[in-house]
Amino acid sequence: MAEPSEITSLDGELRDGAHHMKVRVFYEDTDFSKAVYHASYLRFMERGRTNFLRLLGTDQRALFEDTEREAPSGFAFVVRSMQIDFLKPAFMDDILDVVTQPDQVRGASITLLQRCKRDNELIVEARVRVAFVSNGKAQRIPRALRLAMGAANH
Amino acid sequence: MAEPSEITSLDGELRDGAHHMKVRVFYEDTDFSKAVYHASYLRFMERGRTNFLRLLGTDQRALFEDTEREAPSGFAFVVRSMQIDFLKPAFMDDILDVVTQPDQVRGASITLLQRCKRDNELIVEARVRVAFVSNGKAQRIPRALRLAMGAANH
Amino acid sequence: MAEPSEITSLDGELRDGAHHMKVRVFYEDTDFSKAVYHASYLRFMERGRTNFLRLLGTDQRALFEDTEREAPSGFAFVVRSMQIDFLKPAFMDDILDVVTQPDQVRGASITLLQRCKRDNELIVEARVRVAFVSNGKAQRIPRALRLAMGAANH
Amino acid sequence: MAEPSEITSLDGELRDGAHHMKVRVFYEDTDFSKAVYHASYLRFMERGRTNFLRLLGTDQRALFEDTEREAPSGFAFVVRSMQIDFLKPAFMDDILDVVTQPDQVRGASITLLQRCKRDNELIVEARVRVAFVSNGKAQRIPRALRLAMGAANH
């Protein structure tokens, strides 16, 4: 209970082509089996995707501004499908690393590889296919965003 | 585990001036303490308020149509404050009765009395003050809605 | 808002080898995109799996008692992996049919096919591989449970 | 979207007798009204209480070790009642300050004052009465914990 509090960045950070974010497990994330409720990992990974886009916007500002010009009313990623493996349980008070990185970046969809780790143990691994939605409709992914993702990746 | 499944009404029912609704406790509602997570009761009570309004709309259709005329773009209750007592724990697989009834119906706000019970045991009791919001703004509560609430109450 | 309330069975029902359960979409299930939040479907499907097991216990009582003899301290399904497709959005006040059926029943794991439908529209479809956990450990699936699942299926 | 990421402490910090913690609003926290779902604030405040206890354990280690001696199987705060005011809406991407401080520390219960703020705007304010639970039962609050809370407060 008394481990010292880590200094971290509120929205995580981009490093080695991936977004890294620390998530503490709270009561709300667990269920009466004592472990983390399986759907809670989807919430953790959505926080990772949202922050990945947020930091990409700061880091690759010129490319992001091009994206915003193509989608002036704003845009978001919407999950189309996911394949998820629950490998080990996590527990109350655990600190998880949520790592998000582009896996396949195509014109119509992006597949992200997302992992929840506790130190070096892999807890959950998912491949998440997202579409780019703007103005309430799925759109072709703007070239600038594909470049920004690629730039993050190298 | 093997108790026979109760026949119930999907949205609960109005009876004796109150809305009654059965809620089954699932994994998602519990936490690692083994009991129901405290914020889950707010979700149960919100389902009760939503269904109370839904059934009032069927039961008191004429009064509700008057309300809809005063709020043509739709309306909702928004919680302004609540006083809530967590009296006993509830557990996985429990069936709770969520009972919602008007407590004070005034021009600017309505206070609802909401109870979660397991058979005759009171688990949670709350007084919930809601405002009537239409068109994105708090509005005076339409007379027809106040009458519909009063009619439900007698 | 004023559609009459359906009579339903609190825990859903077994029919044609599948478990069927109605779920109403509430505020808690949606997000600011206006549609149902993607992880909410995992909560709906977990309710389906829990109730499927519950009703199987009533319906196939003799086989279930054999299972309980093999797992005297209780048992549960734990999700090992899932493949999930989010095909269409669902919205506040929608009534969804959550349909759960055995897809592959093997010694070490069961794959369930789960679908969330709104009338005849398929909203979400998932294949969910679960392990049988008793006494805190994954166990071979008792023959009686495999038979009960098969019996439900025919 | 592109504001630079704040450096923060994962578990918040103790300052001026209060626990301060930043919480980012994600999709999961909102509902289709576009604002934060009312029960989400209870999740934010529970994170605040959990981290307040965690940091108190680090900061006032000697007093905490006395507490742990009196409750060797571990202990937790359990919410008995709360009075909560929802003053203004918060929205997706907002950063909230969750501030937790002892209000009344008595032998049988502690009342915490908890506030969610966005810059200088007060969004939610609550008084939360918690009991000290150890070994599955409510216990008198150990003198050392009362001292640790008092020490945090000055």
Notes on the structure:
Four copies of one chain form a homotetramer. Chain A is an alpha+beta fold and 154 residues long. The first copy, chain A, has a single domain (13-152), classed as Hotdog Thioesterase (Thiol Ester Dehydrase, Chain A, Roll), CATH 3.10.129.10. Chain A has three helices and eight strands. Chain A has helices at residues 40-59, 61-70, 143-152; strands spanning 7-9, 13-15, 18-24, 75-86, 95-105, 110-118, 121-134, 137-139. In chain A, strands 2, 3, 4, 5, 6, 7 and 8 form a seven-stranded antiparallel beta sheet that branches. In chain A, strand 2 (13-15) and strand 3 form a beta hairpin. In chain A, helix 2 runs antiparallel to helix 3. Chains in contact: A-B, A-C, A-D, B-C, B-D, C-D. At the A-D interface, strand 1 and helix 1 of A face strand 1 and helix 1 of D. Strand 4 of chain A pairs antiparallel with strand 4 (75-86) of chain C.
Summarize the structure.
The structure is a homotetramer of 154-residue chains. Chain A has three helices and eight strands; from the N terminus they run E-E-E-H-H-E-E-E-E-E-H.
Calculate the terminal CA-CA distance of chain A, rounded to whole Å.
38 Å
Average pLDDT, all residues of chain A: 90
Number of helices of chain A: 3
Beta percentage of chain A is 35-45%
Backbone CA Rg of chain A:
16 Å
Q: Which fold does the CATH topology of chain A refer to?
A: Thiol Ester Dehydrase, Chain A
The CATH superfamily label of chain A reads: Hotdog Thioesterase
Shape of chain A: globular
> How many β-strand runs of chain A?
8
Estimated structural class of chain A: alpha+beta
